[in-house]
Design a protein that fits this description.
The protein has about 375 residues and is α/β, with parallel strands linked by helices. It has 2 domains: about 280 residues, 3-Layer(aba) Sandwich (Rossmann fold); about 60 residues, no CATH class. Helix content is about 40%, strand content about 10%. A 7-stranded parallel β-sheet has the order 1-3-2-4-5-6-7, with helices on both faces. The longest helix is centred in the middle third of the chain and has 29 residues. The N and C termini lie far apart (about 50 Å). About 40% of the residues are buried.
Length: about 375
C-alpha cells in the first residue's frame, strides 16, 4: 500500500471519528413518547411486547434491561395502574397477570388498526430497520423522521391517502462507525442482537395483523425490517400462529438485511390455503454496493467483518450471488408467487432510506403497489 493511500485512509477515519465520540444505550425504548403518537403506531420492546398507553421513564426501562415484563415486576404499583387504565382486571404482578395485560393490549391495538380503516380498504404498514434512534441526536435520522418522510412520499406518489400504521421496535442503536475497533465491534454486536430479535418482533406483528379486516396490506420495510417481515409473513419456525391471509399482501423490501434461500425456504408454510395466484407479493430492491449490507467502510471497503458476519445480510447486496441464486430458486419452488427483483447497484455505496426513496426505483415500487 502506498504512502498516499495510507494517508488518505487515516484522514478518512479521522473525519469519521469526529462524529463518533458518543455511543448511546444499545436498546431503543419508547416509554416517554408523546401520547398522540399512539393513534397510528404500535411500539414493541425487544421481546415483542406492546407498550401500554402510559408514561414510563426511559431511565427506569433501562434499569429493567429495556424489557416491559421485567419493568412490570420492578414496578408493581404502576403495573396495576396500567392494567386498570386498560380495563384489565388483575390484582397482582405475576406471569399470568402480565399475559392478561398483553392480551388486552393486543386486542385494543387490533381494534385501533381496524378503526383506521377507510373506503380505500388498504392499510400501509411501515417498518424501520437497525440503528434508528427515537430520541433526536446529532448523528442519525430518527425513526419518526424516517416514517414521516416515507408516509408523505407514499401518499403523494400513490395519489391516495391510505391509513398508515407505523411499527416502532427495539432494533438497537449505537453510534457510529469509526477507527476504534472495539466500538465498531460493539456496533456490529448490537446489529446481531437486533437481527435475532427481529424474528420475535415479526411474530408479534403477525398476531397484530392476521385478523384485521382489510382487503389489502402494503408493507414497506427498509434494511433489517426484511427479517421482521419474513417472520410475519410465513411460519418461519413452525409456531403455528395464523399468517396473513388478506386478499392481497404487498411487501416492499428496500435493501433487505437478510439472507437468501435458507431463510425463505418456508415461504409457503402459512397455515392457510394459498390461492393459485399467491396473495402475498414481494418486491425487492437490492444494491451490490450497499456498504452497510456488505458491512464494510463506505470509502475503501477495506475494513469491516463482511456480509456473512454478525447476522448474514447477503441477500440485499447479492454477496456471492446470493440474490441471483435466490431468484432462480423462487422460479423453481414458488410457482404462482410474485417476486420482483430490482437492481439498484447504480445508486452506489449508500444505505440511507432517504436516498433510496429519491431514486428512480421508487416509482417502480409505487407501480408495484398499484
Amino acid at each position: 500500500m502506498s504512502n498516499s493511500v495510507r494517508i488518505a485512509i487515516i484522514i478518512v477515519f479521522e473525519i469519521l471519528q469526529l462524529g463518533s465520540s458518543l455511543y448511546g444505550q444499545d436498546n431503543v425504548v419508547y416509554g416517554e413518547r408523546p401520547s398522540e403518537m399512539n393513534s397510528e403506531a404500535v411500539f414493541l420492546d425487544q421481546e415483542g411486547s406492546i407498550y401500554p398507553d402510559y408514561f414510563i421513564s426511559n431511565e427506569s426501562l433501562f434499569q429493567s434491561k429495556a424489557c416491559l415484563h421485567a419493568w412490570y415486576h420492578d414496578h408493581p404499583a404502576e403495573f396495576l395502574d396500567i392494567a386498570k387504565k386498560h380495563n384489565c382486571h388483575v390484582e397482582q404482578v405475576d406471569q399470568f397477570s402480565i399475559q392478561q395485560l398483553e392480551d388486552t393490549l393486543l386486542a385494543q391495538a387490533i381494534r385501533k388498526i381496524q378503526f383506521l380503516k377507510t373506503e380505500t380498504n388498504t392499510l400501509n404498514v411501515l417498518v424501520h430497520g437497525y440503528r434508528k434512534p427515537f430520541v433526536p441526536n446529532e448523528h442519525d435520522v430518527t425513526s419518526i423522521e424516517a416514517f414521516a418522510n416515507l408516509e408523505q412520499k407514499l401518499t403523494t406518489a400513490i395519489g391516495v391517502k391510505h391509513p398508515t400504521l407505523k411499527i416502532y421496535w427495539d432494533a438497537s442503536y449505537n453510534c457510529c462507525y469509526s477507527m476504534d475497533g472495539e466500538k465498531n465491534r460493539e456496533m456490529f454486536e448490537g446489529f446481531e442482537r437486533a437481527y435475532h430479535r427481529a424474528d420475535t418482533i415479526g411474530v408479534s406483528l403477525k398476531r397484530l395483523l392476521n385478523s384485521v379486516d382489510y382487503a389489502q396490506i402494503n408493507f414497506v420495510g427498509h434494511s433489517l425490517a426484511a427479517k421482521v417481515l419474513q417472520s410475519c409473513l410465513f411460519d418461519l419456525k413452525g409456531n403455528g400462529i395464523p399468517c396473513l391471509s388478506q386478499a392481497r399482501v404487498n411487501v416492499c423490501l428496500i435493501a433487505p438485511a437478510t439472507s437468501g434461500i435458507e431463510s425463505w425456504e418456508n415461504y409457503k408454510r402459512r397455515n392457510y390455503a394459498i390461492p393459485a395466484q399467491d396473495n402475498v407479493r414481494i418486491w425487492m430492491l437490492y444494491n451490490e454496493k450497499d456498504f452497510a449490507l456488505k458491512k464494510k467502510d463506505n470509502h475503501f471497503e477495506l475494513f469491516g467483518p463482511g456480509a456473512e458476519a454478525y447476522g448474514p445480510t447477503t441477500l440485499g447486496c447479492n454477496h456471492k450471488r446470493t440474490l441471483t441464486k435466490f431468484e432462480k430458486y423462487t422460479k423453481e419452488n414458488f410457482v404462482g408467487s410474485t417476486f420482483i427483483f430490482v437492481d439498484g447497484t447504480s445508486l452506489g455505496k449508500i444505505h440511507s432510506q432517504f436516498i433510496y426513496l429519491e431514486s428512480p426505483f421508487f416509482k417502480e415500487m409505487i407501480d408495484f403497489l398499484r
